[in-house]
Amino acid sequence: MFNLLLKMKNNELNISYQSHFEEVLSFVKSKKQEVYKKVNTSLIELYWSVGKYISQKVKDEIWGKGVVVELAQYIKKSEPNIKGFSSQNLWRMKQFYETYQSNQKLSTLSRVLPQNINNIFKDTYVLEMLQLLAKQIVITRKMAGDFGRTK
Prior knowledge:
The chain is an all-alpha fold. The chain has helices spanning 2-59, 65-78, 87-100, 104-112, 117-120, 124-143. The longest helix is centred in the first third of the chain and has 58 residues, at 2-59.
């Protein structure tokens, strides 16, 4: 009987604190979304930078397809846990940069507003980059242990 009363009292405590707990949980959820947005923005900036770098090397006739294939293999060998940097994806990053480099507003928006790119751009390169980004986000979340989740 005493255990039953104790359980009831604990449940009453939980209920009385529930609004406070919900408020703390809303802080956690809000920060979690901020982290995901920052990760998204950082990944797009990374893809933009890699695309720009490769574009310049190809433009200067220093690099060709063979070198990009070697770069993809180098990344895979050096950092086996990093995904999304196959030679095909590296070329997509180059195409992404080249497609939007001349339009300053679009190139800035592509990095500042990643959550709205699908509405802004209707280009297949961008859609492919978004798919790659989505895969990276899933991988990042898995590696982060779903940010703050306890067992």
